Amino acid sequence: MDPTESVSAAGPRPVVTRFAPSPTGELHLGNARTALFNLLLARHTEGRFVLRIEDTDRERSREGHTTALMADLTWLGIEWDAGPNREDERGPYRQSERAGLYQGFFAVLEERQTVYPCYCTPLELDLSRRAQLAAGRPPRYAGTCSALTAAERAQRQAQGLGATWRFRVPRGERVEFVDFVHGPQSFLTDDIGDFVIRRADGSAAFFFSNAVDDACMGVTQALRGEDHLTNTPRQMLILAALGLPRPSYGHISLIVGADGAPLSKRHGAVSVREYRERGYLPGAVVNHLFRLGHSSPLHGMLTLDEMARGFDATHLGRAPSRFDEQQLHVWQKDTVHRLSTESARAWLAPVLPPGLDEQSASAFVTAVRPNLVLPEDARAWVRIVFGAPPPLEPSAEVVVRGAGAGYFAAAAAAARESADLPAIVGAIRAATGRKGAELYMPLRVALTGLSHGPELAPLLKAMPAGQACERLARFA
RNA sequence: GCUCCCUUCGUCUAGAGGCCUAGGACAUAGCCCUCUCAAGGCUGUAACACGGGUUCGAAUCCCGUAGGGAGCGCCA
């Protein structure tokens, strides 16, 4: 089936996708990919992409995380049509501001008696779970409070026990749906315990708020992490009980580390922020994510628009994909090579010598950029170009000695006139008759201390006035 | 423990029973170009997790095994 086509009685509906993070931490690479794919899925047609902040857990949600999350998405170039800072009639887009709406739908469920109050304490529930696990059974809610009489409820309430509200899961039924990534799915309701949809403090729990919001916001495709796959029947049950439409669901596998284990701190950086701080560019990150768990006949660096055009939800992979930093490096290198001089200068600003004028900075950036992947790679070249004359590595020593004083006398004389490579090389050639590597290598080595590095001509131009001449004269 | 998901070159993947001697991209190796590195060009190495079926024919369908992952929360 084509998931980009959602058909209702009224005909094809425009696609609405969403990214619904909870602001309990930094934007994880896996979530960033989910956001990207949802954006692309919407943009592939003329659909809408919405950002919804799932901050119903007051203890763990922090406003700072929401701000950071949006900043990271924006940095990646992921822009939403509606969200916390772009409210419209379907909002508000923070769940913490939707309590009234949840209350309304909750009242419907209460009236239809598909929910009931549960007075079990966390301790009791924990004990029950352990006991079931120990007995080799699935740790499901035992149904202790499912058949309480009005009198029993009143009694518990009188004892001052707080109540959560559980959804009464029908017995002996089958919930089926077609996951647009994994294909047909079928679950037995008997495997699902009655679950909490309203916490003791009155707030809406995930299964409930998430499902209700998808319906209310007109979401047509819910593309999310595979960790939600087995939870989907619960949400379908809620939506069905409420008579609300459900989106079609698609679940993408999680991103794992190089060792195949779930991406975690021990793999190094896992958040978008960390990559940004290390100097990775958004285009590189996004191009890498685009290929993770998704295949496209398109090759090479793509813009978000090109990705959107080429995005194909039928080509979403089912297997977990590894986040391979080596592949990210390839995209990063490519991105760096394509930067305009101004952008490259800004990108390298943190490692450039303080107070360097714009023109010198541009010359430097132009010279070294082809050899960089990350800003830190430029540090060595900053030292070589702007610092004290670099010491010669042993092999370089040999090269310099082999060239002889006459070589460097000619070189220094020419360099005194200008930092123009052809002119300097021409003078040396005339004086020594050397050519090829014999001609160039002593020059490189005397100037940089190394036998490898960026092209000499731009490097020469990047050096402060008189620097080249000085370094060459050392060996004359 | 139970339920569910997953397994093709190093990596991302194409693959819907014969078009597969398994294709592509990146990585990698060699060569060319070249003052070195990078870039570019050319050529190469490299995979169907395993075992059984079904079939004239299986990467593809079925069963099992192994390995990985998720869910079963007053987290989302």
- Broad structural category: mainly alpha
- Please give the order of strands in the largest beta sheet: 5-6-9
**Unreliable sequence segments:** 1-10
Main sheet properties: 3 strands, antiparallel
CA-based gyration radius: 31 Å
As a percent range, the share of helical residues equals 40-55%
Distance between the termini: 76 Å
* Strand content bin: 5-15%
Number of helices: 19
Count every beta strand, where a strand is a DSSP E run of 2 or more residues.
13
Overall mean pLDDT stands at 91
Shape: elongated
Description:
45% of the residues lie in helices and 11% in strands. The protein is mostly helical and 476 residues long. The protein is elongated.
What are the SSEs and their pairings?
Layout lengths: L5 E3 L2 E3 L2 E4 L9 H16 L3 E4 L11 H14 L22 H13 L3 E4 L3 H13 L15 H9 L5 E4 L6 E6 L3 E6 L6 E4 L7 H11 L4 E5 L6 H11 L5 E5 L2 E2 L15 H6 L4 H10 L12 H7 L10 E2 L2 H14 L2 H8 L9 H11 L10 H8 L7 H24 L3 H12 L4 H12 L7 H7 L4 H7 L3
Parallel strand pairs: 3-4, 10-11, 12-13
Antiparallel strand pairs: 1-2, 5-6, 6-9, 7-8
Helix pairs in contact: 1-10, 6-7, 9-11, 12-13, 13-18, 15-16, 15-17, 15-19
The protein binds one RNA strand of 76 nucleotides through α4, β8, β9, α6 and β13.
Give a quick set of tags describing it.
476 residues; 3-stranded antiparallel beta sheet; mainly alpha; elongated; RNA-binding; disordered N terminus; two-stranded antiparallel ribbon
